[in-house]
Amino acid sequence: MKKQYDDSTADMRETVFSKNIPNFVHEKFLDYVGKTPNRGRILDIGTGNGYILREIKKRFPERYELIGVDSSPSMLEKARLIDKTIEYLLADNNNLPFRDGHFSTVTAKNVTRFSAEEFARVLQVGGLFVFREYGPGKGLVEISKLFPDRLIRSRELDYYVTQLNKSGFESINVERFTIQRQYAQEELLKIVQMFPFIENMDDSDLEKIKYLFRGKEFIKVTSDPFILTARRKK
């Protein structure tokens, strides 16, 4: 099986993230993170190139101790090159190398594999989980409709709520959004190849997506993000 994030993919992700274009969902996500008490310890799951931790550091300088974990050495290498002051560790989301109750907050953005039980274990009592993900349209609703049986972990919101309830979380709150974005063909194809989106994607699948652009320089695509917060039960 091909590694999800090799050097080429890491470079591609960095190119997109380096644009650093904020939006109101991103700002809301950071607002929730900021509800962590001063001097709290934050763990970012599936941190990738460290984008979320850098954003937290930028918005709340010297307020938190920041640690990121990822299963991709290539992505962590990128993260460390960008900011050497943040701690990054190679780790499995389902078996985190931290003691019980080690963190005041766990953040996760667009993470497809994780254990709600493991998050509950490493969080302090009353600790906050802040999760930003996409709905069943995977953030590219019109594109996902081209591949209804091959989407990777296309999940309804109830799936996450159920997992958190079973794992010792309470005060679960969800905000859902519908956003239309305009993409050039090259940009959209890059995004589709960058994230775990379509199972066994090949050149013929890319041609299907290109067909949507026939006669057009740009197309509009609907994004379906949500932000979920929950606290570890006391």
User: Helicity range of the residues?
Assistant: 25-40%
Number of helices: 9
Instruction: Please report which band the strand proportion falls in: under 5%, 5-15%, 15-25%, 25-35%, 35-45% or over 45%.
Output: 25-35%
Strand order of the largest sheet: 3-2-1-4-5-9-6
State the end-to-end distance. 41 Å
Q: Which structural class best describes the helix and strand composition?
A: alpha/beta
Layout of helices and strands, plus pairs?
Elements: H1 7-17, H2 24-33, E1 41-45, H3 51-59, E2 65-70, H4 73-82, E3 87-90, E4 103-109, H5 116-122, E5 123-134, H6 141-144, H7 157-166, E6 169-176, E7 179-184, H8 185-194, H9 203-211, E8 218-223, E9 225-232
Parallel strand pairs: 1-2, 1-4, 2-3, 4-5
Antiparallel strand pairs: 5-9, 6-9, 7-8
